[in-house]
Amino acid sequence: MTNSAVVQEFIELVQIDVQSRNERAIADVLKQKLAAVGLEVAEDDTAAKVGGNTGNIIARLPGETGMPAILLSAHMDRVANTGGIKPVVHEKEDLITSDGSSILAADNISGVCAILAGLRKIKADNIPHGDIEVVFSVCEEIGVVGAKYLDFARFKAKMAYVFDAPGRLGRIITQAPTKCKVRIGVHGRSAHAGNEPEKGLSAIRV
Q1: Catalytic position from the list 23, 44, 77, 141
Q2: Distance (Å, whole) CA 6 – CA 2
Q3: What is the largest CA-CA distance in the chain?
Q4: Which of 19, 55, 73, 188 is positioned for an S-S bond with 46, CB 3.0–4.6 A?
Q5: Distance between CA atoms of 196 and 19, rounded to whole angstroms?
Q6: Contact predicate 206/188, CB 8 Å
């Protein structure tokens, strides 16, 4: 297991200290890795919009005309942590954990590594494909904020695979909960509480 290229890359990436709004260090590494595979790599202007130091990484591997484009996505940030992640490989159990002093950051470095491995496989085996578009987003853990500022006019793909869920290999989630904010203003109707309470309407009760 330790000799696996995917495992080694995972161990490398989880040890880069990353926070939401501070994805610079890992973004620079991923840009180099994508370029090494042959993708066209860019970074958008999301950093200023989220108050961070890094934009979303957008990359494209041009493909054959007449074949559909697909989008592959994962996020670069991780839940709030103190850094200094120390992954431990348990060979017998075929398992990777942290050393117990921190998170592991498998969310979402496992997704990032899966995408990188897939891209390398396509290139190495010369597998026919349409355009492959890749997004490594920022600030997912604080409300999917980075993805909010993506300019979807930049993409050809009409379908996307987001590598950010647990479960067996091959498991695909087609529906998921979301969140939104609803602001409601309730106005009561005042009336004298002793003389004519029946004419009043309590905003608190509503």
Answers
A1: 77
A2: 9
A3: 85
A4: 55
A5: 58
A6: yes
What phi-psi label fits residue 155: left (phi over 0), alpha (psi between -120 and 50 degrees) or beta?
beta
Residue 130 burial by Cβ neighbours in a 10 Å radius (0-12, 13-18, 19+): middle
64-68, 160-164, 184-188, range with the lowest pLDDT = 184-188
User: Predicted confidence band at 157 (pLDDT cuts at 50, 70, 90)?
Assistant: very high
As a whole number of angstroms, the distance between CA 150 and CA 161 comes to 16
**CA–CA separation, 154 and 150 (whole Å):** 9
Tokens 């600030």 appear where?
Answer: 139
Catalytic annotation, pick one of 107, 131, 140, 141:
140
The yes-or-no answer on residue 133 being catalytic is no
Residue 102 burial (CB count, 10 A):
15
User: What are the distances in angstroms from CA 127 to CA 14, 71, 167, 191?
Assistant: 29, 17, 27, 76
pTM for the structure as a whole: 0.85
In the annotation, is 140 catalytic? Answer: yes
Q: Which of 133, 138, 84 is nearest to 108 (CA)?
A: 138
Structure tokens at 79: 């839940």
Residue-level pLDDT at 44: 98
Give CA–CA dist 71/156, Å, rounded.
Answer: 9
The reported pLDDT for the residue numbered 116 is 98
Residue linked to tokens 């493909």 = 63
Listed in sequence order, the DSSP H helices in 72-165 are 106-124, 145-148
